[in-house]
Task: structure prediction
Amino acid sequence: MPSNRRQRSLNRDALAIFQAALAAVEPARSVAAVIHRSGDVLTIGRGKKARRINLRKIRRVLVVGAGKAAAPMAQAVEKVLGRLVTHGIISVKTGHGLKLKRTLVLEASHPVPDQTGVEAARRIGDLLAQAGPDDLIISLVSGGGSALLPLPAAGLDLEDKQETTRLLLACGATIQEINTVRKHLSALKGGQMARLAAPAEVVNLMLSDVVGDDMAIIASGPFVPDQSTYAETWDILDRYELVDKLPAAVRTHLRTGLAGLIPETPKPGDQVFARVTNLIVASNRLALRAAADRAKRLGYRTLILSSTITGETRDVALVHAALAREIRESGHPLKPPACLISGGETTVTLRGHGRGGRNQEFVLAAALALDDLNGVLLFSAGTDGTDGPTDAAGAWADGSTLERAARLGLSARRHLQENDAYPFFENLNGLIKTGPTRTNVMDVRLVLVD
Result:
């Protein structure tokens, strides 16, 4: 059994490494790094690909956005442009707002949308529709943006979208699949905000919360060409056996789209994107590099496994636990002290009725494979500070976790079967609670071996 002193040291190091990852993708800093004003010239981006806009030719600057990080992103824009911002509206998750001078911040529900989100989305859509060719729209998009822009397509209502979202979240669908469906039930997603804004100049700045940084998936790509179709949407729902469970209005809408009676989302080459600049300002890969730098400074041999890990959470956990055991027993792929780092976003197939999230479930599954393995700690947390419908970002476990749980009468295996990781780690003081971080670039997982 590891000593309490060793455990505290690994815990402290894991938190320090995670905090370094968060700092690297802090939204205001990320936006400030790519938007600069010099007199009447606004520069977006870096180097030869940077876009330069003559502010003298701009009639109005309008700010729109949605996501968990939208408020600090807007704060950075206001700092650069000040009174040049004519008006702004952003939709953020409840508890993620900030008081801004020129931009209205509306807080709404996530991940299941609510009426406040619908109203925020409607107001954003109305503002875009009023824009003209001499206006500059600055869009600020981050993870959570899909749920926070829930303006239903014609013929649908909020309840239809809420029930569809619940079904998708419970079936283990990936974020790519979920957002494909969302685009085809929405009046704004999948490039449709670009359709509303045209012919205004648009700069769309994004924090990526999706594997591979696919711009069309981030917040369901409101200003990005959409290659997905109604046919693909139907196939996803059919694959997860959800078609017969969908609200009747959703089935009718999708069948109408399949018949070609509803316009598709705008595709690559559409003229609505002629004046749109899309730019990713922070990503999971950036967070992992910062985590690796911090781990090296703490004295660990460090290896980034991947920023694109997906799959069932429990399966991914077993792989990480096996790597921890291999390092401890053979010194491969790194000799201790070692730090393995991974990112991405796994999925959970709900089997029980407990409380938790993918990061807590990851650590609980790993704990079962780490029993009695000394000097090892596994840590997993969401960079947004929220893991599933809980107030924890994630959890940590080591080789003593199961022994300590048993002394409290807790069965790790039973809690895992019930998807009930939160109370398990709450009783062991193993939850990671950061509060809202106002950023979101998926998850950070750490394997520390002393």
The radius of gyration is 23 Å.
